[in-house]
Amino acid sequence: MGFPPIGIMSLSSVLKRAGHEVVMFDQANPETPNEIIIEEIRRQRPALVGLSFLSTTSYPYAKLLARQIRAADANVKLAFGGVFASLNAQLVKLQVPEVDFVCRGDGEQLILDLVERLDDPAAVAGVTWQERGGRLRHNVNRPLDRDLDQWPFPDRESLALDFVESMPLDVPAVLSLERFTTMQTSRGCPWPCVFCDIPVFNEGKWRSRSPEHVIAEMRQLQADGYGAVYFVDDHFLLQPKRIQAICKGIGDNDIRIQWGCEGRVDSTCMELFPAMAKAHCRTLMFGLESGSQRVLDRLNKEQTLEEAERAVTKAKDSGIQIVHGFFVVGCPDETEADMRETFRFASRLRIDTFGFNRLCVYRGTPLWQEYVRRGLVDDAADWYKYFKCSSIDPTVLPGETIHRIRQEGLRKLIVYKLARYPVQAFKLLYRFFRHMPAGDVLRLLSKPFLGPKGGMTNAEVVSRAVEHAELKSDAAWLTQVSDEALEHAMHESRAERARIQAAAEAERRAA
Ligand code: B12
Which domains does the chain have, with CATH numbers? Predict the structure, then answer.
């Protein structure tokens, strides 16, 4: 999914409203590699450089950039923030001494407070830092911010986002040719799924913006020419009253933006699916995870297969155009029969699109804690890594078996969907071909049939800007390599990407 970096865009508008100047860069934009970012820091001499990264996987790149910035400017104040930094603040501070402040949790009020106290952060709640004498300071947590309406809408003006819009979709968030962006209308999810760290990040709470505030942003987006929005909420479907009010607000204000969101299948909002479809909800994405109740229970998903079936059927009957199923394979105690059952289950459901990802374990999740207890990960040595469960847990099927059954399952699933639901499949393919390069659609469809010879989609080509070919298949390793090895991989990847693009360009010209 090519999404704009809404985290830094949110902080930018907060800072600007308070009278500060802000310049943003997206490291994922091929036009602003580290060298350009550093050059700009040298030129503009900011008071604070904030590096925002979401996940364990992008920590090595943030670390590398922080080291490069520090080498270029010994005095600039450097801050880290985002989910991974929040959950591992003290360890990150110790591992990256170049960074002055590791910021935990929501950043809006925190960054306002921090810019006022760059030389004396002792009183800034939520910051981890080091005193001149070397003592590590972990300031008190910030109370969870419940009044999300107080903050301005993200700054969508100041960052070149054409490259995001031109990114092909691996998962069809909202398949539309309209101008696209993301919004966040709520934060958190209280359910205890073993693979997720969101409850820890949000102290097990769910908080939301008021329907009026959400509608005001949508009106603004429509006025600015946006026609498609995806809500990056962890669980959009939690509160029926709020959704009802949002749908009503969309109708009352003649908002025609097509939107998508994700949520749980046991949501009480199911009755509202028809109202959502009427309010232009085009895409609903559900975490279905498995077709085996035993595996769902092992993942502590607290959902049943019947609930999944009911939610998908209800969504399709209500006229939601794309219903997506997220599945995980390679779970603890999952057998080959369970995996096959998952693919059978997916073919029974009326989902339009699907993804079957390998289960990975991240620090901060209940599964990580279990693995520490079982001696499969060493918290002190492994905290900045993530693992495919199959690489470390003997109760998970071997990687090759998972890969083989997944390829088989995908082949059968695609053939079955085309044969059993030809109209639905045709409509979807029509939309795919309208909104994605034809080559990418064909490659995505044929990949499970061709195996490793299948070639790359554009999305894979783009992702190689940061993940090098051989390493891509085992990205977890990237979180564990030395800076030099990572730098080398990034250099190789850029060269490879340039070669691929040149070849594609030559092919296009010849055609
Ligand atoms: C949207 C999203 C994506 C988008 C991101 C697009 C983009 N350019 O930003 C896409 C689809 C690309 C994506 C990909 C991945 N994601 Co993701 N993603 C999310 C999701 C659902 C929302 C993130 C978001 O936009 N939040 C809204 C903004 C406003 O919040 P924010 O970024 O956290 O920023 C706030 C604070 O953190 C803080 N802050 C942030 N930065 C800074 C910096 C400073 C200096 C300060 C002071 C404060 C601060 O202030 C902000 C405002 O309050 C989160 C779940 C979540 N709730 O965080 C998962 C999540 C971050 N993703 C996750 C994962 C695992 C991934 C992938 C590894 C998946 C995969 N296997 O490929 C990749 C890795 C991508 C990468 N390069 O890091 C995990 C991370 C777990 C972990 N511990 O590592 C999460 C937490 C989901 C989960 N339930 O576990 N993701």
Answer: 6-138 (3.40.50.280), 168-436 (3.80.30.20), 450-511 (no CATH)
